[in-house]
Each structure stands twice: as structure tokens, then as C-alpha cells.
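The protein record passed on below.

***
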Amino acid sequence: MRRSLLAVFLVTLVGCSGAQTVVDTSEDSQPLEAPPSEDTGCPAKVWEGDFHAESSADLTRLEGVTKITGSLTLVSRNSDDEVYEARCDTIHICSFEQLSCLQDVEGSIRIAQNHMELVNLEGLNRLAHIRGTLTIEHNSVLATLEGLEALEAVGGLYLNENERLVSVEGLGSLETAGAIFIINNNSLTNLDGLSSLRAVVGDVSLEANDALTSLSGLSSLVSIGGMLEFLSNYGLESLNGLEGITEIGGTISFVNNRHLPTCEAEAFIRRLTGAGWHGEPEVQENDDSATCAAATTR
């Protein structure tokens, strides 16, 4: 059921953005000159439509582009992580340096299955707005999200199965998101890079992040318009960092977080209920034997 909710979320956001998953090779889809950009280092230039890149060589067509009216797909042509031939020119995406002028994407961005040298997202340093989803998944050597320091708003953030991702540092300017799903990133220990996040319009879901121990990076978060769920985060020991949340529009679930004290989850729900939340919470298979300080359980 939760997987189907995630699918609906992604389809809905992509549908709203008008994005299509197509490879645009038409002669008509070329960068167009536009009114001058505020960034004097990059005169405004618009790419009309979607763009699909499978290698660093493909990205040369976007050099100098400041805005894409469609969606951007960045998936290496040879996505088999058992193939180690370093050919960034034709079969791998190894960096985003050609995207150094990009500031605005009206559709979605998907960064996936890049297994060679993509350890961070440097090159996207001017990117400030993504109206659709930012999906980052199955990148086996990606360690941080550094390079996204200018990103202020995104229609949805979806981080899935980036096995070496240890930090979301790089998202320090992100203040609003349509939704956040962080799933199966087994090296991720904290969310400190989300320290500016104040509001999520839709759902927040953290699931199966085995090394996640701290939520202190969410200390600025005030409102969630949809559901909040923590599922099978085996290392999570505390909800410290969620004290600022005063509004949740959907359901609240704490399920199968083996080291999370049940009393902390219950105290969080009592506090939100006192602030006006109404619903049937789901709290099960957490640490029933742990104790909480009186200040925590009030």
C-alpha cells in the first residue's frame, strides 16, 4: 500500500509538471536565447522540451543553458556497475560541469544508475528551482549531494538506494518541498543537510535507512501537509529534531524502528494531538522496553 502511494505521488507530480519521459533528438529542440539572466556569468538561454543524457558527451548540448522547460534525465548509457571501463565521453556520466549555468527546470530531474565517478553533484551549483521531482536513485558511488547548494524549492525529493550516500549536505538552501521520500540509503547516518527545510506540502516518508541515527537536521521543519511515516529504520534511536513540527495533515506512522523508544513515538503523537491533529496513528514494532525521560513523555 505504501509503495502504491509512492507511485501515485511520483506520477501526480510528473503529470502536473507536464513532463514526458522521452528522448528529444529533434532539430527543433535547441537552446533559445532569452532575456538577460540575473546571473551575469550566464546569459539566459532556454532549452525547450525534455532532455535525456546518457554520457558526459551528451551534456555538451546543454552548455550555457539556464532553463529547461521540460524534464532532464541523467542515466548513464552503460549502467552495469560491473563494467569499470572509464569512458565518460560516450557511455558514462562522470560529472555535471556542462550544466554549470542551469538555474531552473520546469519539469523533473532524474539522476540514476551512474556507477563510475559521480561521487557528488558538483556542476549543478546554480540550480535553484525544480517544479517537478528530483529523483536520485541507484547511484552506487554517490557519497554526498554537494553541488545543490542553490536549490531553494523542489516539487518532490526522492532519494532511493544510493548505497554509499553518507550525507545530504548540499541541500542547505532548500526551504520547501512538495514531498520527501528517503528510502534504502543504507550509509546515510543523518539529515543535517536539510537544516533550512521549513515546510513540506505533501508526504514525508523515511524507510529502511539502516544507518540513520539522527533527525536533528529536520529541526527547522514546521509543517507537513500529508502523512509522516518512519518505517524500518533500524538504527533510529530518537525523534530529537522533530520538536518544531506543529502541523501534520495526514496519518502518522512509526513502524518497525527497532531501537526507537515506543514512548517517544507516543509522546510525539500526544503533542501533535494537543496541537489539533486528528487521526488514527500507527505505532508498532518499535522498542517497547525503552524508557523515556519525564520531560519527553509529557
